[in-house]
């Protein structure tokens, strides 16, 4: 049996707006857009992707699944994402080497520090 990771589903009140925000933040391309769904990928033929799917209710609690990103320069990437509309959030992480942030619909994600060699 073989499994291929296709995508991560992100529930969203406004899939097109949130999906476009992530496409811009990651430099990814839009591969599908409809009233209820907006899918992005690193390249049209590259997986996995992020698929934003419409739900009526907004996020109410801490996300049970989130994405981690490891940039070359954590401080510069956090500043770039803040300028793009992300915000730093406290989910009880305390003093850590990573920065917890949230997208415009309050979905948490982490910007990690440099990889240890």
Automatic annotation (TrEMBL):
The lineage of its organism: Bacteria, Bacillati, Actinomycetota, Actinomycetes, Kitasatosporales. It comes from Streptomyces apricus. This is VOC family protein. Gene3D superfamilies: 2,3-Dihydroxybiphenyl 1,2-Dioxygenase, domain 1 (3.10.180.10). Residues 4-114 form the VOC domain. It comes from the Bacteria. Pfam families: Glyoxalase_6 (PF18029). PANTHER family: CONSERVED PROTEIN, HYPOTHETICAL FUSION PROTEIN.
